[in-house]
Amino acid sequence: MKKYEPRDILIYLAFKHEGDWDACVAGIRSHEHFDEEEYEKLLKTNGSKIITMLDDEYPNYLKTMMKPPLVLFYYGDISILKDQRKNIGYVGSREASSYGLETAKNICKDLAGYGYNVISGLASGIDTAATEGAIEGKGKAVAVLGNGIDYCYPSENTPLYRQLIHEGLVISEYPGMTRPSKETFPFRNRLIACLSKAVVVGEASIRSGTLITVNYALSNNIDVGCVPYRAGENSACNVLIKEGAFMIENAEDIMTMVGNNSKK
Fold first, then answer.
1. Whether the Cβ atoms of residue 161 and residue 148 lie closer than 8 Å to each other
2. pLDDT of amino acid 259
3. pTM of the model
4. Distance CA 184, CA 223 (A)
């Protein structure tokens, strides 16, 4: 008879509850029934790789964050996450201006040249531009999904999603084709923040959901930098800079923010 380990229970609960963190924790506390036959069926239909917080490859720095991921489903190179000091989160508006998009791509291309990885959410707009910049700079990019690991959202980013599978990393707390929801995206943002040494906001309005990521970063003592925008444009970046965020105009500013003043 096959011997099942505690990590198997975590994976089973993640499958059963579609990655819902609270439901999985409740299942652990209540010693929810572990259906061995169902678990084996779920494993056979799963296409992604899996890592749990009980595994040696799991990044230790994630264990101190609020509600650390119990299970991560992924495609690509999980070792990219090993050294948090090399990870820069770059996030922003889905409906970004040409200025914001161009700046994101240029900064992340240069970051890649300095040996940094770019962490983002694969959303349209700033996230996409940042990811494309990292790839153009021959660096590594990580997409943190707010839906199932096999579900690409938005669909127009499918080519980029597939490229990251082979050249970077795609991760999610949600298995298979789990659909996105209004809860999963904000919850995903805590992971983008906590995977990063620092978080940069490329462009965002005052009411942008990007500020959720900023709040997670600040609550975890992670530095936040912002690309400045035109005056009078309802820019959350400008407000954050006034409140003490680092002003980011280029990749060198990010390196200064994280305490790395070495030359390219």
1. no
2. 92
3. 0.95
4. 24
